[in-house]
Design the sequence.
């Protein structure tokens, strides 16, 4: 590996790390399947393997809707549609202050603009989140 140019060494290291990650993921799936199928083991939701291609996928249940496997992306756009922040949280985060406030912080850090008005889906509403956002100006 030392005989390769440094750019190729970095690429090789990245590829090897990806291979290690995918082997570890495959091992996790085999262990999970073995436990479920042959030992009738139940796993907490945080340990369930839902997707190999999307490590952030979660099991989402919303009210009386059909459950789905998917993501809870937090997208913040400017008035003109510019994407100022996109976050895909790990695990099952609550749909309120845990998601909104960090996404707004990321938007301000990236764009250096404090919004005068924020429109948020009512599923994300919380008094604490509102107070924090008002405190940010």
Sequence:
């Amino acid at each position: 590996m030392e005989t390769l140019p440094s750019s190729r060494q970095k690429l090789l290291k990245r590829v090897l790390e990806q291979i290690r990650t995918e082997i570890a993921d495959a091992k996790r799936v085999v262990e999970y399947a073995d436990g479920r199928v042959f030992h009738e083991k139940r796993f907490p939701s945080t340990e369930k393997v839902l997707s190999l291609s999307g490590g952030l996928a979660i099991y989402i249940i919303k009210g009386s809707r059909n459950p789905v496997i998917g993501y809870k992306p937090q997208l913040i756009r400017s008035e003109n549609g510019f994407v100022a922040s996109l976050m895909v949280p790990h695990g099952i985060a609550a749909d309120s202050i845990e998601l909104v406030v960090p996404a707004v912080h990321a938007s301000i850090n990236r764009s250096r603009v404090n919004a005068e008005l924020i429109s948020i889906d009512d599923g994300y509403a919380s008094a604490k989140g509102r107070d924090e956002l008002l405190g940010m100006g």
Remarks:
- The chain has a mean pLDDT of 80.
